[in-house]
Automatic annotation (TrEMBL), chains A, B:
<keyword id="KW-0238">DNA-binding</keyword>
<dbReference type="InterPro" id="IPR028082">
    <property type="entry name" value="Peripla_BP_I"/>
</dbReference>
<protein>
    <submittedName>
        <fullName>LacI family transcriptional regulator</fullName>
    </submittedName>
</protein>
<keyword id="KW-0678">Repressor</keyword>
<dbReference type="InterPro" id="IPR046335">
    <property type="entry name" value="LacI/GalR-like_sensor"/>
</dbReference>
<keyword id="KW-0805">Transcription regulation</keyword>
<dbReference type="Pfam" id="PF00356">
    <property type="entry name" value="LacI"/>
</dbReference>
<feature type="domain" description="HTH lacI-type">
    <location>
        <begin position="1"/>
        <end position="51"/>
    </location>
</feature>
<dbReference type="GO" id="GO:0003700">
    <property type="term" value="F:DNA-binding transcription factor activity"/>
</dbReference>
<feature type="compositionally biased region" description="Basic and acidic residues">
    <location>
        <begin position="345"/>
        <end position="357"/>
    </location>
</feature>
<dbReference type="InterPro" id="IPR010982">
    <property type="entry name" value="Lambda_DNA-bd_dom_sf"/>
</dbReference>
<dbReference type="GO" id="GO:0000976">
    <property type="term" value="F:transcription cis-regulatory region binding"/>
</dbReference>
<dbReference type="InterPro" id="IPR000843">
    <property type="entry name" value="HTH_LacI"/>
</dbReference>
<keyword id="KW-0804">Transcription</keyword>
<feature type="region of interest" description="Disordered">
    <location>
        <begin position="323"/>
        <end position="357"/>
    </location>
</feature>
<dbReference type="Pfam" id="PF13377">
    <property type="entry name" value="Peripla_BP_3"/>
</dbReference>
Length: 357, 357
DNA sequence: TTGAAAGCGCTAACAG
DNA sequence: CTGTTAGCGCTTTCAA
């Protein structure tokens, strides 16, 4: 290439990197057009070797690529990487620790300038051996200190969801939680906290009967909701806060099966704002969005040193916005009235069940 | 490092790369343990520079990371890359041609050993300028010849779906297609072809009244299905083949709204086997799976030269397997009977509509 | 069985 | 304003 333009390699380098304008205008043009002609592009490898930084960043994830949920984190990370002319290595470990280890090694050998360690859902993860000290944790928190990390603010999200319902006038608000168990997501506890907090704030009783569990699926949501909807009038909830959108979809089914209209007879709010699901329900589901794109962006910005994390050892909580659609409304008028015994003269539709499934 | 082990760099290289066993056993051990102790890992950059291949592959996609559908293609590609000690650069262009261009350049500068160009859904794409001639197209076909590519065999998939219904005894099988329009996916035409082919094969009439269109969403599927279900008895379909699972979910809603049970009164088959959706319906949806993981695997294998594409210029059609769940059954007994006029004494439930939405 | 020398393609420091 | 020199960390002859 240097030859093609009839100049030294140094000059080519200087021109192509816009190092000051110490090079004469005509030389610059000559180099530029020669490069164009030859289709020359400097080798990032050689440059990386020389400059000791590769302009690449490694992104290790447990399952992002495998699962349809958190892809937008990648998009967020990519977008800022691209804006800064960085290329990203993606390694999906499938949750396998051995794979993770070799990924860390391989990335180090590639001299990546930064490392992001991402999880598919909000969780606490053990810090893998050999992970660079400046790695950023995305959608997870390391079990050891000293790292930057970003996670959704699930407590505030749970609070926001509940507040949405309280603001609409509901006083009997149920929380359809995921199963207990060793795999219980940390997000569930956080959302539950937010839920309770707002209830108390609003002077409402935290009724254990309104906190039910189900498997994290459409069916789980339906079963839990069915249980709640057959409660006696006096305690039956008028609004359901579901752990996620899939469970909310199940709650829709339970409501429909009882002839309950949403939001007229029952309000429902979900969590996740799952693409192609939440917005497509009838009526479209009001829900809390997980800020995946924003978290991905934040992580990459911090990793590249474009944005400083507040503190070295703090986990950044990112707001989960309320997505208002049409599944939340005021409670049915009659429920505001004082207790009525379950004497069987209910609202016109509350028990007109319809066969389903 | 060479120093740490008290040998030359050459020896270190030889040992760590298992080049013959010309090195004495004890020297090897010494080098290995010194490397371990120092935490030494050879620089892939330097090695790449020297060997003129970087052990990396570039994967350019329009939207894989943004959308929840095709992530498993990444997983498939990753898995084979990892098995061959390759790292993959992922660039999600968001469909922006300019970004795509710079990605191609950046990848070339990184000396990637192979390039994969992936789309989020089966389509014909223009070949981007500067794309290496040995690039492999994943889930799309280039509009110019000379490239290897892999796509799902949507025609066969459409045929398989229809055959599933025919085999169950259905004779009036509708196809709920996506909207027409400039964005009409190529897959739609292919699946339609397969549908018609099997109908003819089975000696069934291809009734245009049973080919309806809707927007590609739950709502679109519901509306199209509603239309079909209110057709007069004589022509009303007993089975619905839906363009995708989301539309099938809409069809479920339409069926339930009319009090029809699936598959007892109506059989439904979808397409995509969308994760966390298809299997969670009630009853679980029988559908055709898109072989995303397999296609990703194939593309990477071909790109790395591990597997030879049949012909240089052929597009590989990958089978879409039938996922049998519970939404397909035999048609209701009465429909086999000769024509009955819409004299209004229908089956016990066929018109007992139930309020919905 | 091992080491010395050369060079992959670039850029940083220094001359000119 | 431009070229020379050196060297990033490795692998590959070639020699010892």
């Amino acid at each position: 290439m240097a030859a093609a333009a009839g100049v030294s390699a140094t000059t080519v380098s200087l021109v192509l990197n816009d190092v000051e304008s110490r090079i004469s205008r005509e030389t610059r043009d000559r180099v530029r057009s020669a490069a164009e002609a030859v289709g020359y592009a400097p080798s990032s490898l050689a440059r990386g070797l020389r400059q000791r930084r590769s302009q690449t960043v490694g992104l290790i994830s447990d399952q992002i690529a495998t699962t349809p949920f958190a892809g937008r984190m990648l998009a967020g990370a990519q977008d800022v990487a691209r804006a800064h002319e960085k290329l990203v290595f993606l390694v999906d470990t499938g949750g396998d620790r051995a794979v993770e280890q070799s990924a860390i090694r391989a990335l180090a050998a590639q001299q990546v300038d930064a490392t992001i360690y991402a999880a598919m859902w909000h969780q606490i993860v053990p810090v893998p051996d050999g992970l660079p000290a400046d790695a950023v944790f995305l959608d997870c928190r390391p079990d050891a200190g000293g790292f930057r990390s970003v996670v959704p603010d699930d407590r505030a999200g749970g609070a926001a969801a509940t507040r949405e319902l309280v603001a609409a006038g509901h006083r009997r608000i149920a929380f359809i939680d995921t199963d207990e168990g060793p795999t219980r997501p940390i997000a569930a506890d956080l959302r539950l906290e937010g839920y309770r907090e707002v209830l108390r704030e609003a002077g409402l009783r935290v009724d254990p009967a309104l906190h039910v569990h189900g498997e994290t699926s459409i069916r789980g949501g339906r079963e839990a909701a069915e249980h709640l909807l057959q409660l006696p009038d006096a305690v039956r909830p008028t609004a359901l806060f579901c752990f996620n959108d899939r469970m909310a979809v199940g709650a829709y089914a339970a409501a429909h099966a009882r002839g309950l209209r949403i939001p007229h007879d029952l309000s429902i709010i979900g969590y996740d704002d799952q693409q192609f699901i939440a917005a497509e329900q009838e009526p479209p589901l009001t829900t809390i969005a997980l800020p995946h794109y924003e978290m991905g962006k934040w992580a990459m910005e911090v990793a590249l040193g474009i944005r400083a994390a507040e503190e070295q050892d703090a986990t950044h909580q990112m707001t989960c916005p309320v997505i208002r659609r049409d599944s939340v409304g005021p409670p049915p008028a009659h429920v505001a009235k004082p207790n009525r015994r379950r004497t069987s003269h209910h609202t016109e539709r509350s028990l007109s069940a319809t066969p389903e499934r």
